[in-house]
Amino acid sequence: MMLIQALLIALFAYLGWLATPWFGGEPIGWYTLGRPMIAGTIVGAILGDIRTGMIVGATINAFYIGAITPGGAMAADMNMAGYVGTALAIMAKVEPAVAVAMAVPIGLVGTFGWQAFSTLNVFWVHLADRHADELKLRAFTFDLAGGPQILNFLLRFVPVFLVVYLGAPIAERIAALIPGWLTHILTVVGTMLPAVGFAVLIKMMYRNPVMLAYLAIGFVLVAVGKMPMVGVALLGLGLAGVHSYLSTHPVVQEA
């Protein structure tokens, strides 16, 4: 049974990676399936513990909430952290805070896969140039779509599958061997890491005072007004629509 689960987790990790175009490209793939919160929910559903998956995924997502990939530069692989980190955390039965401490180094290791893909993909670019000069349309098409995606599949699907499938018993043994004091340290560190993500997000928002005003409104509604998160999210969606409209349709005053 674990074989099928590992295959499904690896498949979704592949569909949600930055270089995978099949599942809606970046908007649906990387920016939706690739986010730890969505990844945690999917992993939880596959492993039969969707509640824990959502909690662990959301906790990991908080650390990466301010992370962006400008120009394809990936500082941390949140896709790997979300899928592999959540899977190992559920199988090892650790607390969400400990899961964050586990997922962060996994995300850093995942960046090597992206760097390897970007480096090795140069081969297909040069091959496409040669086939274009030789007017070999079929080979040129394969160089642009087929070859890079085979490489992409090998660098994402295969590592995730091997880590989840072979790492389950290892993760359980490691969790059983970790002493209480070390678990406490990991819990404290994991609790602090989401604050780093929010700090990065606030730093980005600091350049625009209007964004800070929206943040203050949301904080007051939750902390003072006790408004549910769903209500705050819907209000934020409405304000985002108004802000976008006013930004693209400036008010013109008649003389």
Descriptors:
2 domains, 11 helices, 255 residues, flat, mainly alpha
Structure description:
The structure is a single chain. The protein has eleven helices and no strands. It is 80% helix and 0% strand. The model has no long low-confidence stretch (mean pLDDT 81). With 255 residues, it is mainly alpha-helical. Helix 7 runs antiparallel to helix 8. The chain has two domains: 2-205, no CATH class; 208-255, no CATH class.
Task: Describe the SSE topology.
Blueprint: H1 2-15, H2 25-33, H3 36-47, H4 50-63, H5 78-92, H6 96-120, H7 122-133, H8 137-177, H9 180-205, H10 209-223, H11 229-248
Helix pairs in contact: 1-3, 1-5, 1-8, 3-4, 3-5, 4-5, 4-6, 4-9, 5-6, 5-8, 6-8, 6-9, 7-8, 10-11
> What integer is the average pLDDT?
81
Helix percentage:
over 70%
How much strand?
Answer: under 5%
The low-pLDDT segments are none
Give me the strand/helix succession: HHHHHHHHHHH
* Overall domain count: 2
Count of discrete alpha- or pi-helical segments spanning 4 or more residues: 11
Overall shape = flat
Question: How does the helix and strand content classify structurally?
Answer: mainly alpha
> What would you report as the Rg, rounded to the nearest angstrom?
21 Å
DSSP strand tally: 0
Spatial separation of the terminal alpha carbons: 73 Å
Reported for the largest beta sheet, the result is: none
